[in-house]
Amino acid sequence: MTWYTLLVLAVAVERLAELVVARRNAAWTRARDGVEHGRGHYPVMVVLHTGLLAGCLLEPLLANRPFLPALGWPALALALLAQALRWWCITTLGPYWNTRVIVVPGARLVGAGPYRLLRHPNYVAVVVEGAALPLVHSAWLTATVFTLANAVLLTVRIRCENAALTTHAVPA
Predict the structure, then answer these.
(1) Is the pTM for the entire model greater than 0.85?
(2) Res 162 pLDDT > 70
């Protein structure tokens, strides 16, 4: 459990780093008349993602979940791949990447990196991580609850993002 705790704490630190990047990028986009959309769902997203990390730590302890190598090692590989994809998205979007939906009117849609292949590759990373990270230490309940709640949130989030991009951005 010690190594798993360190993994979850490392993901928490990574999330804090994301917030630092997001704040810097929000200032950059707002300085260019960026328009924010979807403020109402943002607090729900914060609670959900915080709950994921808490559940990852609490469920194995409270429910005495074991580390199962046949599940844990592949789940760890997927969780690490999700992190790599997330940072590929962040670096590809540069100052346009944010945890909020802020669009600079007239900006071109990004069609490089993972965005050549998918419209919302960052959400692939979120989905994979949300299932894989808890399963590293057999926290199947956390993985299930997060995945279901996240599906609802992503439905709202992707609609919001698509509407914002359609309204303000220029196709790549």
Answers:
(1) yes
(2) yes
